[in-house]
C-alpha cells in the first residue's frame, strides 16, 4: 500500500520509505542498493541483471525486494532500471560523508571533482556534494551513474543533482 502523497504527487513519503530503508547491519557493511520502486508494474531488469541474485521478484508485477545479505552495491541494477528508481548508498565512504550513486540522464555530465547541488525527491536543493565517480560506459545502457558525497544523515534524501554551469 503506497501513501496518498505518492499517489497524488508521485513522491514517496516517510511511510513509503520506511518499507525500503536498508537495515542497519546492511548499511554498516558498505554500499547497498535501495529500490524506490513503489508501483506494482511489469518490470524486472534489476533482478535479471543482478549477478548476485540479490534482487528478488516473486512475479514480474511485484515490487523488487533486496536481499541485503547478497547485495554488495555493485551499481549494475542502477543503470538497468528503466524507471531510474534504484540508488546505491554507502554510509561508510568516509568518517564524515556518505555517498549516493544515482542515474543521471542530463547534459552536461559532471566531472569527477565537480561540486554539484544535491536535490531531494521534489528537485529542491538540499546541499552540495562532490562528484567522486562518473560511470558512463557502454554497459550502462546510456544511463550514466554519478556518485556524489552527501552528509551521512542525507543518504535517504538526496536523489538527484544539479550541475551548475
Automatic annotation (TrEMBL):
Pfam families, A to Z: Fer4 (PF00037)
InterPro entries: 4Fe4S_Fe-S-bd, 4Fe4S_Fe_S_CS
Protein keywords: Iron, Iron-sulfur, Metal-binding
Domain 4Fe-4S ferredoxin-type: 62-91
Keyword Cell membrane recorded: no
Gene Ontology terms, MF aspect: iron-sulfur cluster binding; metal ion binding
Highest taxon of the lineage: Bacteria
Keyword Iron assigned: yes
Protein name per its UniProtKB record: 4Fe-4S ferredoxin
